[in-house]
Amino acid sequence: MSFELETAANREGLRRVAIDPVSRVEGHGKVTLLLDDAGHVKEARLHIVEFRGFEKFIQGRPYWEVPVMVQRLCGICPVSHHLAAAKALDPVVGALTVTPTADKIRRLMHYGQILQSHALHFFHLASPDLLFGFDSPVQQRNIVGVAGAWPEVAKKGVLLRKFGQEVIRITTGKRVHGTGAVPGGVNRSLTAAERDELLAEADRMIEWSHEAVHLARQLHEANAALYDDFGLFRSHLLSLVRADGALDLYDGHLRLRDARGQIVRDAIPCADYDQHIVEEVKSWSYMKFPFIKELGPTRGWYKVGPLARVQNCDFIPSPLAEVERQDFIARGEGEPIHAPLAYHWARMIEMLHAAEIIRGLLDDPDLLSDQRMAGGPRGREGVGIIEAPRGTLIHHYRVGEDDLVSYCNLIVSTTHNNQAMNEAVRQVARRYLDGRQLTEGLLNHIEVAIRAFDPCLSCATHALGKMPMVVELRGADGALLDSAERGG
Amino acid sequence: MKQFLLDGQPVPFEDGQSILEAARQAGHYIPSLCWHKDFPAHGSCKLCIVKAAGRHVSACATPAKEGWEVESATPEMNGERRALLQMLFVEGNHFCPSCEKSGNCELQALGYEYEMLTSRFRHFYPDRPVDASHPDVLLDFNRCIFCELCVRASRDVDGKAVFALTGRGINKHLVVNAESGRLGDTDFSKDDLAARICPVGVILRKGPGFAVPIGERTYDGQSIREQKLKEEES
């Protein structure tokens, strides 16, 4: 099936404009626009042009390698893949629950990841657009420009990210691609000195995160007409929530709200994800399009990530972030907020929450305990779902009697947002580009919409062997001589 | 006592001692992968290559001689060692980032020791499926460097002859001595010497992967040079 502006009715004679690559996002993607002679947009697509294939080559490898290997999907949120894989493989070693120490160290690691990734996105990638304007001089629109004009903002952004990276280093041994979580638990606890090193900075991180929430909110409220309308589309919202409805980024069950805010699916156990979520493959992108099976591809697509999570939960279990959530929700006046640019505000609320959670965990003596591993009768299958910085991340493995992985399915946060990002691109193309002379600043509007989702395109491309393909042979005059097609 | 000069330093030796043994005993490091103090010299990895009396020789397999001038830690010799390491890396599939042996691996440690910054040669990407048929031990042939330490340990100490090298030249590979060719069909045990002698990540205990955190692995805090000389002292 195809959405409006996904495929032009007649592509002959249309002018093609490409934004290649999309900048200030993780990974490589491009946007193509097809325009008619009057400059009207007839087709707009976000393509993911890189290919990874982890789902395939993890098969045949021993299960204990998986958390370490799959985190190489990403250099920004490796911890999310590391933890989702470890969670999925806990049942394989019989650890139906892990020890309190393992649970808390994993949570500390995860919230460190959330904090550093959200800081990176807001300050390094998004703030140049938000502070200078979408069509400000391109030479200025980067973190160096921000450091020149708002040195304190840039400095706090850099140091917030550094703190998150230090949490990761202390819990995994390295700032990027460590080995902290293993199936059944974790391989190290904190020393008192490491805890104290983090404690020395933790309160300041809460303070700076709080300031960042207010900055994002001020930017939104100061230009409300733009922020509320830019790239606006309505969709379902999907995320994990804790059993009591609280925001929980490490564990919980799946909840789906419709575009008007009604909960339409709740308490879906993680292991049942594949009964509800299916993926569609399209010939023009390496990234699949997930949707809720019962609702179908037209109505069943959704968005994930901070905007979904902050509105999908019933409350945030940390005091400062909960106050900010309530203010955020109030802005919707009883309806969910769907504006893509509101992602930034929601993301900063989550960053504040992460800083509060880290601070709270550092008082917990379990972090120093050596009760790190759990086990029991072996299992053969596991599903691990975690809320990565960019949204719901699903890892699913089966392991044979010989301890080798026989099946792997990954549905990555950015993949869930595929249709949503394409919708945002089309909305912006209609509203800002249609019929106008295209400039760099106007094209950056498209990128601003994509950036709001903080996509990680390299994480999200795994359609090995499933990609539908059309190969066309054309003569020098452009006439079609032959074609071959493979279905998805 | 008789002595030779190693990079200008006098090294005493006893008759029958190899250049490598005498050097290590005197606190001088000459690298090796296939050499083990409990087994006769093998001379296959060539990492211990030195120049003695103007000729390239394997230090592990060449008896020391009175008055020899031996060059080892020279830019020329170290450059050749680096090239040998690069060839070992491209010959197999050495994916250190997700290898359980990372941090404990002698090949990786030597890569760091000799500042190997690139693999330089074209990768072979051989197709070597793992053998996971044994309940306690995984064989990942991708990382084999043909040192034959497992072959020798299994045959000469464990008395089982579970492993062998077969094929010639570029087709040489490690095999398991069973009708099926599978480790699970042998009497191999996780307690065998052969199960813990592999210098790289071919023979691995199943299950406790990555239980030792980064920072606590053998070569995380010290170089292979320091570690091997420490072993020599103890």
How much is the radius of gyration of chain A in Å?
22 Å
Give the uncertain stretches of chain A in residue-range form. Answer: 462-469
Report the average pLDDT across residues of chain A.
Answer: 92
What would CATH call the homologous superfamily of chain A?
Cytochrome-c3 Hydrogenase, chain B
Overall form of chain B: globular
Proportion of residues in extended strands of chain A: 15-25%
Concise summary:
The complex is a heterodimer of chains A (488) and B (234). Chain A has 488 residues and is α+β, with helices and mostly antiparallel strands. Chain A has helices at residues 54-57, 66-70, 78-89, 100-132, 143-149, 151-172, 192-222, 224-229, 273-276, 296-299, 306-312, 319-331, 342-361, 413-416, 418-433, 440-452; strands spanning 15-19, 29-35, 41-48, 181-182, 185-186, 236-241, 253-257, 263-268, 277-280, 289-292, 302-303, 381-388, 391-399, 405-411, 469-474, 480-486.
What are the SSEs and their pairings?
The complex is a heterodimer of chains A (488) and B (234).
Chain A: E1 15-19, E2 29-35, E3 41-48, H1 54-57, H2 66-70, H3 78-89, H4 100-132, H5 143-149, H6 151-172, E4 181-182, E5 185-186, H7 192-222, H8 224-229, E6 236-241, E7 253-257, E8 263-268, H9 273-276, E9 277-280, E10 289-292, H10 296-299, E11 302-303, H11 306-312, H12 319-331, H13 342-361, E12 381-388, E13 391-399, E14 405-411, H14 413-416, H15 418-433, H16 440-452, E15 469-474, E16 480-486
Parallel strand pairs in A: 6-11
Antiparallel strand pairs in A: 1-2, 2-3, 4-5, 6-7, 7-8, 9-10, 12-13, 13-14, 15-16
Helix pairs in contact in A: 3-4, 4-6, 4-13, 5-6, 6-7, 7-13, 11-13, 12-13, 15-16
Chain B: E1 2-6, E2 9-13, H1 19-25, E3 49-52, E4 55-58, E5 69-71, H2 75-91, H3 106-113, E6 137-139, H4 149-157, E7 163-166, E8 173-176, E9 203-205, H5 224-233
Parallel strand pairs in B: 1-5
Antiparallel strand pairs in B: 1-2, 3-4, 3-5, 6-9, 7-8
